[in-house]
Amino acid sequence: MPLLAFLGVMAYSLSMAVVTPALPLLQRGLHTTPSGAAWALTSMTLSAAVATPVVGRLGDLYGPRRVMLAVLLVATAGTVLAAAASTLPLMLAGRAVGGVGGGVFPLAYTVIREVFPPERTASAVGLMSSMLGLGGALSWCMAGPIIDQLGWRWLLWVPVAGLVPGTVAAWWIVPRSPPRAGARVDWWGAVLFAGWLVAALTALTQGMDWGWSSGGVLALLGLALVLLLAWVRVESRVAEPLVDLRLMRRRGVWTANAASLLAGYALMAGGVLFPLLVQLPVRDGFGFGGTATQAALLQLPASVGMTAAGMSAGLLDRRIGSRAVLLAGAVLTAAGYAFVAVRHGQMWQLYAGGLARGVGLGFAYAAVANLVVAAVPANGTGVATGVNTLVRTVGASLGTQTSAVIVAASVTAGQPTEPGFALGFAAGAAVMAAVVPLALLAPRRVPRAGFLCWTGGRDAPTTPMAGRARPGRCRRPGRRRARRGRHPAGGPP
Questions:
Q1: Would residue 175 be called left, alpha or beta, if left means φ above 0 and alpha means ψ between -120 and 50 degrees?
Q2: Least confident among 104-118, 198-212, 341-355
Q3: Do residues 169 and 325 lie in contact, with contact meaning Cβ atoms separated by under 8 Å?
Q4: Are 284 and 338 in contact (CB under 8 A)?
Q5: Ramachandran angles phi, psi of 281, nearest 5°
Q6: In angstroms, rounded to a whole number, what is the distance separating the alpha carbons of residues 250 and 106?
Q7: 378 with 113: CB under 8 angstroms?
Q8: Could you give the CA distance from residue 262 to residue 344 in angstroms, rounded to a whole number?
Q9: Is pLDDT of 76 > 70?
Q10: What is the rounded CA–CA span in Å between residue 233 and residue 238?
């Protein structure tokens, strides 16, 4: 069953990333503008952002199996529609429907928490987080051969190869979970949540095309603010809110969400800056004049490094805790960006900085997911990890737009100049440096499997034994304190 969750997440991350290398060809094939082609990515991002926390909540209420089946079926239908579409509106509709597949992330975390023993949860969560990097790496590797041999449209059929077997496996393997008695969905909260989120993200994605001070952007931001205030009021009053705002105030949750926002920025900032720099025509000793294939190859080591780091983050989590893993990831990513901010004249320097960025983000993504899973009760895993994934998506949108604005501001004679790229890389370093204090504020985790610890504060572990351990001390469960003659849980010997 864990393999099923990995397969579903992998298929969705592939469907999200696979369209990026094909955007120029998609523009020509569907006879649209660059802005219209970009909506093939934006539509799926917006849909996923709205669907992820809602699906996570449904998984908490009705069990991950039935919700995962529905999500995978809808995502498969949307992906097939997008791949077969002959017009841009049909493709955008298919991509928006396929974005519902973003809900597999919180569902996968819920499955992990139900299936894996506690000492192996961190490793599984780290592996799940690494699927994002692996999906990006595979999409870039497959893009060239598929486009050259079969055409760009076949690239859109690739995710179906993962979604179809994932759906069959979900029906066959995932055990049923009883729904919570009397549980209800906060549909008013879901509608208001979707409204303010779509308005805010549309303003962010269209800011460059429309102008940040344009009436359309300002109107969208104003609408987002009004709907956000209404949503907060509704969520604070209903008995079973879509997003429990009190849960979001826990130290392990809000620090992880803030770090996810910044890590999402760092991921997409590099996704904009590195390929653009590689393909920039050589002028005055700056630029590489590379091809799209060379730009893709530059992304490959970073994606592989991100995947490997996510897979190993679970072992590090058991040894040193999620807080230390997040700290290491932030420092490594910031160092990678700082290096290329001052040294970007040769390809090996971009490879070195990009690899450090990829490995650091792999650690950071796995750590924030583990922090959230550890900070919330089991019946809140889906919605909490869904919100965390949403925040990461918002950060990614900010990274894309901000980096593009920084580079565009440096254009001279129709070509970006070196100061723009240096400033963009420096901004990425500063953003990840801001994760360092968040990592230090995050709660401590159990350093080794088989030990229960007390860290103090209201976010401390809730097991009976952990509640009776001394602050800052850890001990093995089931161990009797013979000298005091009482059971370790506090009961009679």
A1: beta
A2: 104-118
A3: no
A4: no
A5: -60, 145
A6: 18
A7: yes
A8: 23
A9: yes
A10: 9
Residue 67's alpha-carbon distances to 292, 369, 446, in angstroms, are: 39, 21, 31
Structure tokens at 298: 């530059």
Partnered with residue 453 across adjacent β-strands are 474
Please give the structure tokens belonging to residue 141: 């590797």
Entry field: residues in the chain: 493
The residue with greater pLDDT, 178 or 283, is 283
Q: DSSP letters along 49-111, please? A: HHHHHHHHHHHHHH-HHHHHHHHHHHHHHHHHHHHH-SSHHHHHHHHHHHGGGGGHHHHHHHH
Average pLDDT of the segment spanning 464-484? 40
Structural contact between residues 481 and 488, judged by C-beta atoms closer than 8 angstroms: yes
HSE-up (13 A, CA, CB side) for residue 430: 9
Tens-place pLDDT, residues 264-296: 899 889 888 998 898 888 887 788 888 767 777
What's the pLDDT tens digit per position in 35-47?
A: 677 788 788 888 8
Is residue 451 exposed (0-12), middle (13-18) or buried (19+ Cβ within 10 Å)? middle
Burial class (CB in 10 A: 0-12, 13-18, 19+), 456: exposed
Residue-wise pLDDT for 360-398, tens only, equals: 999 999 999 889 988 888 777 888 888 888 888 888 878
In this predicted structure, the answer to whether residue 106 has a pLDDT above a threshold of 80 is yes
Q: Which helix (H) or strand (E) holds 181?
A: none
Whether 455 contacts 322, CB under 8 Å: no
> What distance in Å separates the CA atoms of residue 124 and residue 370, rounded to the nearest whole number?
10
